[in-house]
Amino acid sequence: MRLVARPGEPSYCRLSVNTQFLCRPKHLMKVGRNNFKPPPKVESSVVQIIPRTPLPAVAFEEWDGLVRICFQRKNRTLSSLFRQANVLRLLGRNRATLAGQQGSMDADDDEEVQLDEERTRVLAVLEAADALDSRARTMAINDFLSLLVKFSEAGYRFS
C-alpha cells in the first residue's frame, strides 16, 4: 500500500513520492493470504501502475536527492533536517562544484565548507519556499517540486 499512500498517511514514504512522481499507481484489490500455498505472513495487493506521459521535466537524480534528504526522518521538520552538518556539507560541496564549473567567483578551493554560511543560505531557501516547518510526511509532490525549484534557483544541486 506504500505505492498508493497519500500525504499524511502512516505508510507515505520516499517510495510513494517517487512512484507517484513518475507514474499513476492505482490500488485494484487485496489478495488474501489464503490464496497462496503456503499462506504468507503478509497481505498482498494488486496495483496498476500507469507511467506518466510525458515524464516531468526534472532530472530524476536531483529529485531523488532532495526526497532522500527529506525522508531521512519523515516526521522531523525540514528546517531540522537541513541544519544537519552532513547535509550542509553535501549541499555546500555541490554548490561550490557547480559554481566552479560555471566559472563563478564564489567557488572556493577550500575543501572545508563554512557550515554557518551554508546553514543561513539553506534556511533562507526553505523560508522562501515557506517550508521551514513542513514535514516530509505531509508534503505533496507539488510541494517537493516547488522546493526543488527554489533550491535550484539558489544554486543548489542534489546530485
Protein described:
- With 159 residues, this protein is of the alpha+beta class.
- It has 2 domains: 2-51, no CATH class; 60-153, Helicase, Ruva Protein, domain 3 (Orthogonal Bundle), CATH 1.10.8.
- The chain is 43% helix and 11% strand.
- It is built from 6 helices and 2 strands, in the order αββααααα.
- It has helices spanning 14-22, 60-70, 78-81, 85-101, 115-128, 141-153; strands at residues 23-31, 44-51.
- A two-stranded antiparallel ribbon has the order 1-2.
- Helix 4 crosses helix 5 (115-128).
- It is elongated.
- The protein starts with 13 loop residues before the first helix and ends in a 6-residue tail after the last helix.
Largest sheet: 2 strands, antiparallel
As laid out across the biggest beta sheet, the strand order is 1-2
- Report low-confidence residues grouped into runs of 5 or more: none
What is the straight-line distance between the termini? 29 Å
Helix content: 40-55%
Organism: Sexangularia sp. CB-2014
Binding site for S-adenosyl-L-methionine: 1
EC number: 2.1.1.-
Enzyme class: transferase
